[in-house]
Amino acid sequence: MNYKIIKKILPFKFFESIKKIYQSIYFYKARNYNLQKDLDYNENLLHTLGMDIGKIKLNLDRLGYNYFDENLSWHFHLFTGLSEVFNDKNINILEIGTHNGSFTNFLSKIFSHASITTIDLDDTDEQFLHSYKRDDKKILNQFLETRNENITRENIRFIKLNSTHIKKYFKDIKFDIIWIDGDHLNPQVTIDIISSLDLINENGIICLDDVIKDQTFKRNNLVSNESYQTINHLEKNEVIKNYYLNKRIRRKNFYNKKYVSLSLFFKNNFF
User: Fold this and answer.
1) Which end is more exposed in the chain, N or C (fewer Cβ atoms within 10 Å of the end residue's Cβ)?
2) Coil, helix or strand at residue 90
3) Is the pTM of the predicted complex or chain greater than 0.85?
4) Domain regions of the chain by residue span
5) For residue 182, which of 161, 203, 202, 212 has the smallest C-alpha distance?
6) What is the Cα–Cα distance from 236 to 223, expressed in whole angstroms?
7) Annotation: CATH topology of 34-265
8) 117 falls in which pLDDT band (50, 70, 90)?
9) How far apart are CA 177 and CA 116, in angstroms?
10) Do residues 182 and 163 make contact, with C-beta atoms less than 8 angstroms apart?
11) Which residues pair with residue 95 across a beta bridge?
């Protein structure tokens, strides 16, 4: 039941008593959450995928990132490791969802010899304007300025494109890595996943952000468990195989765990 509805129904003192009990339970579980277990899980997976944890730490530090920062999403760690796996080859990377270009900028540095294509909605698109408060002119201008600074690098190509049309737009191109971080809701997230299967090389890698496995999770305007449902269905039907990293190593994981996924074609023995 909705928090606001409960507050209206229950007497004030009774509601406050329940609230305090809930908060006590929350803080107890958060305080006792096993962070080391999540860290070990992530590091063991990266090691299984042939990545050197020591090199990941050094390369993140070189670019000004703290390996142990609880607010740093582990897609930074993952792609740092992938850059070593690909050994700085001239590969093609597609990013679906540029946002402010901060991760695009990171990719261009960690994959210095790669060709990076990043796409996002046109900045006049209604969906673009009505997310992240970009319908405010001042916020929009600041956002675009930041994005332009981040993506103005020699190996980045930015395209204003609705990802619904990527199969047609890139019909003559294959990518080695595709990073899906656009719309996290259906139907678009499933369209992006299926389109990526057609655009990726047979030995390529598809990664997704904000994957939620919890089937009780209630979809909101930003995230859902729908990307997991799609890639899990594809794995069950032996189209792809999936690996999942904890998105962040933090105490909130006890109730709100997100993942970063890595997917390969089912018969791909890349790792």
Assistant:
1) N
2) coil
3) yes
4) 1-32, 34-265
5) 161
6) 23
7) Rossmann fold (3.40.50)
8) very high
9) 10
10) yes
11) 118, 179
